[in-house]
Amino acid sequence: MPGATPQRPFDLSLPPLRADDAELRAAIAEGNLPLLLLVLKMLTGEERWLEEPYRPSRARALEDNDHGGFPEEVQEEIREAAFGVLKELREGRVEVPRPPDEDELIHMVSVSLGEEVPAEYGRSMAEEAGFVPREDIDWHDGRPPAAEQMSVLVIGAGPSGIAVGTMLAALGIEHAIVEKSPAVGGVWWENDYPGAGVDTPTHMYSLSFSPSRSWRRYYAKQPEILGYLQRVAEECGVSDRVDFETEVERLDWDEERQIWTARARAAGGERRTYEARVVISCAGIIGRPKTPKIEGMEKFRGPMFHPAHWDHSVELAGKRVAVIGTGATAMQVVPAIAEEAGRVLVFQRSAQWVAPNPNYLREVTDGARLLMEHVPFYASFYRMRLIWQFQDKLLATLRRDPEWPHPERSVNATNDRHREYFLSHLEAELEGRPDLLEKVVPTYPPYGKRILMDNGWYRTLRRPDVELIAEDVTAFDEEGVISADGEHHPVDVVVLATGFHSTRILWPMEVYGRGGVSLHEQWGDEDASAYLGVAVPNFPNLFLIGGPHTFTGHGGSAIYMAESAIAYTARLLIAMVEGGIETLEVRPEVTEDYNRRIDAEHEQLIWTHPGMTTWYRNRHGRIVAMTPWRGVDYWEMTRTPNLAEFVATRAA
User: Fold this and answer.
1) Which DSSP letter does residue 168 get?
2) Of 496, 518, 544, which marks where a domain is finished?
3) In the 8-state DSSP scheme, what is residue 401?
4) How far is it, in rounded angstroms, from Cα 384 to Cα 203?
5) Which of 470, 459, 467, 465 is nearest to 430 (CA)?
6) Of these four, 148, 159, 568, 617, which has the most CB atoms within 10 Å of its CB?
7) Which pTM does this prediction carry?
């Protein structure tokens, strides 16, 4: 991340444009016209490219609005002007200007989207684009000698662990990283099931200090995401500092020595002990698969596995495969295996809302990738557009209107329009199949559960070798599964797409803080809480990345939230070293007040709407995983730590 961490700004480190005229014209023909207009404005300095007749129409839903709503003659004028200025850029006759200031940036993004983006996004978008560094992520007067006394244990080497390791190395802080898997990547190393991929636009789902402009798909699949993370880890030297196949089983705070002791189990059962002044957990909330306990499971004779532990030795060709669940994982698995398996039976406990998304299966063309990789400002403005479209824009529409007369189907008028939009899509996809239509229409408001992207789901359900069974599985026998209606279904393979322990944060690790307090006993039954999702009372010098209330149910990138928490933690570490502070422990009253605000805000939002269950909640109905805040709110909350909110113990 910027500051102490190596910064590679989007536009100041691009490889030179070498494309010949034919390649350049072909690339421009495949480019996004609203983005090309922003490039024209930047490289020519001419304001006319942001004025009529060059103002794009409003971008609708989840599309990129590539043609901007322009008539054909205006499209050609834009492309011809872009060809002229990019040709001059290639020939060295155009000087790339400095990035726009925050006000101009917001104006340009707003014009390109055809709607007003709030001015408060200026600074955070500039950071995400690499136009400016994150503030105060560096020593204020060179690395102090006291930094030699600081040591950190990082748990996890997924996206967050890679970012934390890079930050610590840049600050020159001694640290160790432990990872339970044999390689970096976290959930992207573990989840290699057929069809696995991201449901966040890939150009937004990347680390701000090391973005990729070379994505092959707008929504990348697991191999490409894992390859990207492994490249970043190698380039930043993180991979060399990880103890792989090492799982921390217990953390103990040593009151007398003011350090954490971690007991870990390595490959082959070897026991390891780590000591560190600070522990940063990057374990996240979806790293532990949830396997149900269903009567007779042990009797089933065929292969049975969770997608996170996909058994690639099992041949599916010609087999009858039962997929239990219709959440995000199942929706990726089923279309991916339908061609190969002999028959697929999908068991649905509750229907899901599915969003049409023209980009979900779309590949990034060679021409579009050329523009991303070589044209100044093109990729950075694309990322900024995505931040508004896919991250914060939606949240305001998910507030519960107490006067709304139809709470059984939606939470407000806008949410009702969303419902009609999704409903019209599934009706069109399932035209002529009233049997399926009856099964797939959810009985709760859209976005009440995680919204899913249509990757050919409805078309797959129409296949003659795929059957959707709108019943839960209640039992197994040797030959198959028994559904809640008592029907027996013979199958050869069972896939348990039953989710993760998202509310059991840091489980099954045992953590004991000040006075031997157990973290899980303090939290109670799957009821984790932390100030800003980062700090917990009674657990000094323990910081969580991807902690409770940091997952974005309204859309957006988990990496964005993680980097905000990492920046906050980095500032705390800097304050500790420079201020001679041995321990920082968030005050109980600060955390309690934060939890009250969290719960009060959630009561106004769709995820506490009655009549549905979701993995966002614990068994008592409290939201644990989701944040109620916009991304820009969380970014602002984590910008400047207030040490008065912590009990600080200074070195003797």
Assistant:
1) H
2) 496
3) -
4) 10
5) 459
6) 159
7) 0.94
Tokens standing for residue 236:
């930043």
Q: How far is the C-alpha of 56 from the C-alpha of 35, rounded, in Å?
A: 10
Per the structure block, which two tokens stand in for 273? 């002990």
Do 523 and 435 sit in the same domain of this protein? no
Do 341 and 478 lie in a common domain?
Answer: yes
Distance CA 260, CA 275 (A): 6
Model confidence at 11: pLDDT above 70: no
Scan for tokens 């997929």, then name that residue. 323
Of 206, 271, 458, 486, the C-alpha closest to 346 is 458
Both tokens assigned to 274: 């780590």
Question: Which candidate, 251, 254, 310, places its Cα nearest to that of 543?
Answer: 251
> Considering just the CA atoms, what is the radius of gyration of the chain in Å?
26
Q: In the chain, count H helices and then E strands.
A: 18, 21
Which of 69, 102, 134 corresponds to the end of one domain?
134
Q: Looking at this protein, which amino acid is placed at residue 184? A: V
**Burial of 578: CB neighbours in 10 Å, binned 0-12, 13-18, 19+:** middle
Question: How confident is the model over 45-77, as pLDDT tens digits?
Answer: 999 999 999 999 998 878 899 999 999 999 999
Q: Tell me the one-letter amino acid at 392.
A: D
Kindly state the tokens that stand for 380: 């950075």
Residues 484, 640: Cα–Cα separation, whole Å: 53
CA 534 vs CA 291, 521, 524, 639: distances in Å: 28, 18, 18, 13
Domain hosting residue 26, numbered range: 21-134
Sign of the C-alpha dihedral computed for residues 440, 445, 450 and 455 taken in this order: positive
- Tens digits of residue pLDDT in 574-605: 999 999 999 999 999 999 999 999 999 999 99
Check residue 8 and give its pLDDT: 42
Residue located via tokens 């983006």 = 117
pLDDT at 12: 54
Check whether residue 76 and residue 224 sit in a common domain: no
Average pLDDT over residues 212-233: 96
**8 Å CB contact between 162 and 210:** no
Cβ–Cβ < 8 Å for 633, 552: no
Q: Look at the block and give the residue holding tokens 């049997």.
A: 435
Regarding beta strands 151-155 and 174-178, do their DSSP bridges make them parallel or antiparallel, or are they unpaired? parallel
Query: What is the domain count for the chain?
Result: 3
| Cβ-Cβ contacts under 8 Å for 240 (sequence gap 6 or more) | none
Q: Is 465 found in the same domain as 538? A: no
Q: What CATH number should be reported for the domain holding residue 512?
A: 3.50.50.60
**Running DSSP on this structure, what letter comes out for residue 464?**
T
β-strand partners of 323: 346, 495
Tokens standing for residue 383: 């990322």
What the block records as the tokens of 601 is 């805000």
